[in-house]
Amino acid sequence: MLKWTRAHRIAAKFIRYASEQPLRLISKTLPSLEVGSCWTCYPVTIEALWSASDRKSERDSRRCLAMANKKELRVYNSMTQQKEVFRPAGEGKVGMYVCGVTAYDFSHLGHGRAAVAFDVLYRYLLHLGYEVIYVRNFTDVDDKIIRRANETGENPLDLSNRFCQEYLTDMADLQCLPPTHQPRVSDHMEQIKDMITQIIDNDCGYVVDGDVFFAVDKISNYGCLSGQKLENQRAGERVAVDSRKRNPADFALWKAAKPGEPSWESSWGLGRPGWHIECSAMSAHYLSFKFDIHGGGIDLIFPHHENEIAQSRAACQESCVSHWMHNGHVTNNNEKMSKSLGNFFTIRQITERYHPLALRHFLISAHYRSPLNYSVLQLESASEAVYYIYQTLQDCEDTLSSFREATPSEGTEPKGKTVRVLPDADKCIKGLRKDFHDKMVDDLNTSHVLTGAFQDALKFINNHTNALKKKQQKQRQSAIIQSLSEIEKEVKDVLDILGLLPPLTSSEILQQLKGKALIRADLTEEQLSCLIEERSSARREKDFAKTDRIRADLTAKGIALMDVGTETIWRPCVPVEQEEKLPS
Ligand SMILES: [Zn+2]
């Protein structure tokens, strides 16, 4: 009996080990299987081995492969102002905190950019095999929310909850994966109050009339991230300084309640947290005081992130974020797009006219740290690029499925021998992998990731789907089919890591893109059909002036007509006047 219990204990240990150390598991477990003392232990152990090799070590091997290529991921650290090799503190595990939105209105393009930039990072880290705990907060208690709620007569928490939901809808549209945790301030009052207490106990905060302030003088390296020097901060120049502050740069950790504002009980009286403390408290709660990546928009460096560092260090001396990452602004006519300047577009305003995938394509077309200028032309080009990708994939799928139906054993020779891909296809796949990896490990340089080798792969698909339609030798036909299948998979892998592969069929995506093109052209499908019909009858009557005019009018609106035999089909295009203005 004792022997059996021991065997089970060993098996349980294997399973634990399998999840923690999958790569070392195989070498350790195989010999022990030979020594194996009990038959019950065998299947359990084998299952543990199997699941480890199946899931975890596949991820580990990807990470090892990336390391073996001697090209580890390098990211720009705003703290050291240089690109650094990314090495998380825990092996294979990453803790990442990104500042989210203050939910009092629809989110604008700048919010979309930050979310997409860190979603690309999240997806790439997952692809490299890391287990990532990704935390992105919602600020649901704030001056702006209270002000807006007073205007609309709504409860502030109801108002912010409504806009949190709208934000999540935008995020789903933009194919941003849900973070592991999306904490809200109103749900974390205890953690926030505990941290403020800790800061006061450590003599870095002081209470005045129910307000609690952070004493910046108590932190020796205040300004380490932003480079701001305390003596240079003449806060009183622009805003009247609260005379109760010991130093003009001191900031609020807790604000005493004002009439009509939401408030919570605390040892300093009724009140609510200042803005900065929530991120220190929530990041520590979900990721501990030491974690790998803290991200956000570049405008958060000062004062928000500087104050976060000060608070976290005041609460826990050992607190440390290894990599600070910041995305650039979105500009409009080269001016920062912001709510205060009134020159912003909401994500919703853009996705009414452009497919969310086109918006995402546009957002990743610049390096995440560079400023990105909003431009209708670039959105048009992004739409066109996405249409081309999915048209290519659709053609490939159509061609492959017609061959699969005709020859179900496609991909294998009669004797089960695997068909080799064409040498060109092999080169194309290796080129795409290398190009993609080289760009991504270089501080996530997505700006040209869909050009070069990616375009070569699409070209390969287009050329070979056409070639397949012509008569081919059986052996070459099999090789083309195998090549197309493998390149299609590589292209989809790249799209998936970039968040450009939604769970829809290519044909559904093409339909949606066409729907948006019709909205931009201010035409219904029926109106377009009538125009196409009108042109077809003009064509039959050889009234070429009229056929040309209808085609030109539609092209100017972003609808391209193509005559295929006697039939006329259409696809979206960059409206012609805009195309003329495209930079060469
Ligand atoms: Zn924050």
Commentary on this structure:
The structure is a single chain. The chain has 584 residues and is α/β, with parallel strands linked by helices. The chain has 4 domains: 2-68; 92-205 and 276-353, 3-Layer(aba) Sandwich (Rossmann fold), CATH 3.40.50; 376-508; 522-581, no CATH class. The chain has 19 helices and 15 strands. The strands form 5 sheets. Strands 4-3-9-10 form a 4-stranded parallel beta sheet. It has a 4-stranded antiparallel beta sheet with strand order 5-6-7-8, with helices on one face. A 3-stranded mixed beta sheet has the order 12-11-13. The model is unreliable at 1-7 and 22-50 (pLDDT under 50). Zinc ion (ZN) binds next to loops. Keywords: Aminoacyl-tRNA synthetase, ATP-binding, Chloroplast, Ligase, Metal-binding, Mitochondrion, Nucleotide-binding, Plastid, Protein biosynthesis, Transit peptide, Zinc. Its cofactor is Zn(2+).
Compact overview of the structure:
The protein has 584 residues and is α/β, with parallel strands linked by helices. It has 4 domains: 2-68; 92-205 and 276-353, Rossmann fold (3-Layer(aba) Sandwich), CATH 3.40.50.620; 376-508; 522-581, no CATH class.
List key phrases describing it:
584 residues, alpha/beta, Rossmann fold, four-stranded parallel beta sheet, four-stranded antiparallel beta sheet, 19 helices, transit peptide, protein biosynthesis, tRNAsynth_Ia_anticodon-bd, EC 6.1.1.16
